[in-house]
Amino acid sequence: MNGTRVLVLNSGSSSVKYQLLDMRDSSRLAVGLVERIGEETSRLKHTPLANGGKAREQTGPIADHEAALKAVAEELGKDGLGLDSPELAAIGHRVVHGGKQFTEPTVIDERVLAEIERLIPVAPLHNPANLTGIRTAQALRPDLPQVAVFDTAFHTTMPESAARYAIDVETADEHRIRRYGFHGTSHAYVSRATARLLGKDPSEVNVIVLHLGNGASASAVRAGRCVDTSMGLTPLEGLVMGTRSGDLDPAVIFHLARVGGLSMDEIDTLLNKKSGLIGLCGDNDMREIRRRVDEGDERARLAFDIYIHRLRKYIGAYYAVLGRVDAIAFTAGVGENSAPVREAAVAGLEGLGLAVDAERNGARSDEPRLVSPEGARVAVAVVPTDEELEIATQTYALVGSPEAPVGGSQALN
């Protein structure tokens, strides 16, 4: 392998996010987004980061993912960073669902593609788009290693006692019903970065990671390995999120169907898109909710209190799961930027060794930092996540390794 660059692709149903990184120093050479693919109002925003390049935008119809990636390649080429460059070592793809089979990043071949496709029933919104991005990139550079990095992989270390639901085993196995967890790339990155912040090896540290964005999840990480996480079969379970309900009594679904007369599709839409913060108060932006709280809006206050109540329950639960906690790490949009959320989440938990220092917590920074008081028994950290760097790092390590699991030979079982 001569190249040192990795292109990271995150393909959605109508979008492609991308970053090009140089793995010699983990620097970003270019970032961009193609959105509204398939519409007349498609938009590509490309920003070259080397040598002070300026952002460029183009609008107009982009018919499909193939056209989108060709447009991306053209923009990269304008900066001397094209897909035909010998410096490009691999393309790393974010794939949301890898089931039980994929426990690590995997070089993609037809067998791997078939398994990702077989998992579509448990990830109908994400895996099809991920597959489209992979196949399009393969067509553009069939000679280049393409690596799948799975959101679920980090959570495959959960013990069966955490991963299984208490339903009939045969039924669960037949329909692949178990807790898979998501945001794994972020949880992996942040748990390791937190250990570095403490000056320790990940194998020495127990961390509760709180990934709080519009989607939100918690994980309990013991010695670098996930032992529990809040999301389950789908990203619906767990914390209160921007538009998702998180945990609720399953019988609510039966009640809505039998008494409310809602269809399964209507219930699905309700719980995934019209619940959480937006269902409680009409807003899913924590900044706006906090503004309303400060103005005395009771509906916003209740939404915030419910959000924090659920968050604190998971902190307590994962403290019990781990037995010893060295740090709690807040990450993602809300976790990194909302001091009131961090303060409220640990308020009253001083008996567990948890507290934040008001001045540290209120200070703004893009760097990993501690916001707990000096000498605190449990560190409270803010660690900006970097999923693209994590995907690039895993991809580059894999294609440069003589033990690389080409065709998933180590990941499929």
Q: Could you walk me through the main structural features you see in this protein, from its secondary elements to its overall organization?
A:
The protein is built from 15 helices and 14 strands. The protein is of the alpha/beta class and 413 residues long. 37% of the residues lie in helices and 19% in strands. It has helices at residues 65-78, 110-118, 127-140, 160-163, 169-174, 184-197, 251-258, 264-273, 276-281, 286-294, 298-322, 332-337, 339-346, 358-362, 387-399, and strands spanning 5-11, 16-22, 27-35, 43-48, 56-59, 88-95, 106-107, 146-150, 206-212, 216-222, 225-229, 327-331, 369-370, 379-382. The relative contact order is 0.12.
In short:
By secondary structure, the chain is of the alpha/beta class.
Please report which band the strand proportion falls in: under 5%, 5-15%, 15-25%, 25-35%, 35-45% or over 45%.
15-25%
Taking the sheet with the most strands, its summary is: 8 strands, mixed
Give the % helix. 25-40%
Instruction: Characterize the overall form.
Output: globular
Uncertain regions spanning at least 5 consecutive residues: 402-413
Instruction: Please give the order of strands in the largest beta sheet.
Output: 5-4-3-2-1-6-8-7
What is the residue-averaged pLDDT? 92
The beta-strand count equals: 14
Tell me which oligomeric state these chains represent. Answer: single chain
* Tally of helical runs: 15
Order of helices and strands: EEEEEHEEHHEHHHEEEHHHHHEHHHEEH
Q: Give the termini separation.
A: 28 Å
What integer value in Å does the Rg equal?
Answer: 22 Å
Structural class, from secondary structure content?
Answer: alpha/beta
